[in-house]
Amino acid sequence: MRNFALDRPDITETAQTVDAGHFQFEGDVIKWVKETQGNSPRTINIWSGLYKMGLTANWDIHLGYELFNIYQDNEGKKIDDGAGALTVRLKRNFWGNDGDKKTSFGAIPYITFEPGNALEFNDNIQFGVGFPFSYTLTDKLGLGAQPQIDFIPDGTGGHDLSFFQTVVIGGPLVGELDFYVETVAFFTSADNNYLLNGGLIYNISPNVKVDVATNLGLNKPSPTRIYLGLSFRI
Q: Mind telling me which InterPro entries this protein's record contains (predicted)?
């Protein structure tokens, strides 16, 4: 198989696809989210996973599912719980899939069904497409970037256009431990969000990784997240 490439824990995703006929899981064992800076609602995600299957040499398919969410008010008191959103994605790699080039590029179109939609194609779905790109700087450092366009329900039967751009740098830190540092800017019709992200990834084996990471909101509308993740492939 190819080198084990992940779409997590950074927001910038990999352009590489899962090998044909193989399965890969990437998920948050637990994630804590504060919706905005200051006094705001919070969410705890438990086992929010991305389930991938390689289809061909350059295509794979993903199912993302939030197994259990706990919703809290501004003071941290539970107000609701239950399963979250379901996302269906495809990934197409255009070049660099086998790691034999200094760059790689791909496209990830997706559609997200909010809780309770039961896979209905209605005004509450979110959809869009991202374009992950990577560049090998040195033997130990890599650079990644991802522009993405999203169409987000506006609550009135229509959709708002949203755009984000990421830039990430990372590589081996010490032993089997890798690191990354990432900046993200979201541009929406309502607010612009700016995040500074970072994390550590431990390579348990060539096919198993664990990670711990955070997204730090840099302005008031931006969320803050802390999460612990697990990824493996077979």
A: FApF
